[in-house]
Amino acid sequence: MNRTVANLFTSPYPTAIQTSLESYATIARFDPSGKLIAAGRQDGLGVIWDLATRGQVRWLEGHVKGITSIDWSQNSRYVLTSSKDWNVIIWDLASDTDPPRRQATIRFDVPVVSASFHPKNCKIVLVLLSSGEAYIVDLRKEYRGRYELCEVQDESDDEGQMSRSRVVFTAARFEPSGKHVFLGTSLGYVLVFNARTKTMVARHKISGAGIIRGLEFVASGRRMVTNSSDRVLRQFNLPIYPSPTADNEYIEQELEPTHRFNDPISKVGWHAMSYSPDGEWLAGGAADDASHKIYIWDTAREGLLASTLDGGRELLAYVHWHPHKPSIASVTNLGNILIWHCPTEERWGAFAGGFEEVDENVEYEEREDEFDIEDEADMARRKMLEEEEDVDIEDGAVDSAISAVDPTRQPSENDEDVLWALEEPDDDVQGWKMKVILEDEQD
Q1: Half-sphere exposure of 314 toward its Cβ, with a 13 Å CA cutoff?
Q2: To the nearest whole number, what is the mean pLDDT of the chain?
């Protein structure tokens, strides 16, 4: 209820800088609760910030080269970091040590471009390597292994097979349900794989896009936005993909964007993009070589540009939207994390329905019955009726991001692809607590 009331008086997107965290970061992401933020640094260190105290609560010391990506498990207990040192490390924030205990370390023989958890199970990890290969790494006992995702080659088309053999993957993401993996290629294709069978179920051509550099999804999974080398962000409505067949058939379809987002004047590229929780707003971090700019578009109103946020002379490196409220974290080229919010004026009239703000003193006119003594029996009866009324303090406030989920896309309890991910579940459950670690006093 509080969230619903607050949304009536605030802007749906941030407008000003609230604070700056000096972190020497190259990337920063909110956790699913929105209370913490994880930052990765060029020297291989990771930092967990508490946004309430604006203090550093954990140091992730394990990499020897720059961190390339960060991801959180669904209940924020585990943090994943990938690095140019060829390693992916999963950290357990429930441990009573600082740095936290390493839950797992996944090693490769080339630098790691990005890595992310499966949305339903943090024992399943999607990894993209600098060599252009993509792997699903399963840490569960029954399915333990590394499974490479490979594009289906058309045996009847020799020329096409030779050209596609040179294709490298440049972006990799799980979609929100975890049933499919989306891979962007250097030739402007988006390939869709079934996460359970590791087989390709669709190949989409993005006309004119060039190299696909990034993929983002709304919380419902209905829409996707791509970042490409032609400096245009494209939004697509995604089809419903069928289950894999024994013949490994797949959909060959060219996707037409519903909206194109770009800067028609300066023609800048984009470092990152992020959707708002309800999916109605899109933030794009511009690769401007003169200033720190974040463009915000209204996807519900034909993709109109709603605002441009200026963060000063420190150039932008990364941007991420808060999971629950109109707040954005942007990273500068000097490593500072800027937290954007919606400043609100104090509205004293909101504390009482009959309260009226005036610019100067006015003479008050008393109503005839305003100070009459009320019968005690009537007063007790009225208060009793008010106490008996049911007040909904939680269910009435439905998160707009949740309400926007398409019911036709919600997996059923008997969905084989969903049940596969829930087998041997992780211990990232709600209610875990991060332990307070006191520093030893120096004599």
Answers
A1: 17
A2: 87
The full DSSP string for 62-115 is: --SS-EEEEEE-TTSSEEEEEETTSEEEEEETTSSSSSPEEEEEEE-SS-EEEE
Query: Is residue 409 classed exposed, middle or buried when 0-12, 13-18 and 19+ CB atoms within 10 A define those classes?
Result: middle
pLDDT tens digit sequence for 341-366: 998 776 666 666 667 777 788 887 87
- Containing 7, the helix (H) or strand (E) segment is helix 2-9
Strand 251-254 vs strand 200-205: parallel, antiparallel, or unpaired?
A: parallel
Q: What is the DSSP letter of 248?
A: -
Q: Quote the CA–CA distance of 78 and 351 in Å, as a whole number.
A: 41
Tokens 């992401």, residue?
29
What is the SS3 assignment for 384? helix
Sheet holding 200-205, edge to edge: 169-174, 180-185, 189-194, 200-205, 251-254
CA distances from 243 to 219, 236, 311, 417 (A): 21, 21, 46, 9
Ranking 203-207, 248-252, 270-274, 377-381 by mean pLDDT, the lowest is 377-381
Place of tokens 């023989």: 109
Task: State how far the alpha carbon of 324 is from the alpha carbons of 13, 17, 30, 102, 377, in Å.
Answer: 11, 18, 10, 29, 46
* Confidence bin at 391 (pLDDT 50/70/90): low
Residue 232: CB atoms within 10 Å: 20
Q: Which of 153, 158, 180 is nearest to 420 (CA)?
A: 180
pTM of the model: 0.83
Q: Among 59-68, 266-275, 399-408, which is the least confidently predicted range? A: 399-408
53 Cβ partners below 8 Å, 6+ apart? none
- Under DSSP, is residue 355 helix (H, G, I), strand (E, B) or coil? coil
Q: Which residue, among 69, 64, 63, 2, has the nearest Cα to 29 in the 3D structure? A: 69
Q: Closest Cα to residue 106, out of 141, 69, 146, 72?
A: 146
Angle at 24 between CA 63 and CA 110, to 5 degrees: 30
Classify residue 10 by its DSSP letter.
S
The Cα–Cα gap between 429 and 421 comes to: 15
Cβ neighbours of residue 305 under 8 Å, at least 6 residues apart?
295, 296, 297, 298
Q: In what order do the strands lie in the sheet with 67-72?
A: 67-72, 78-83, 87-92, 101-107
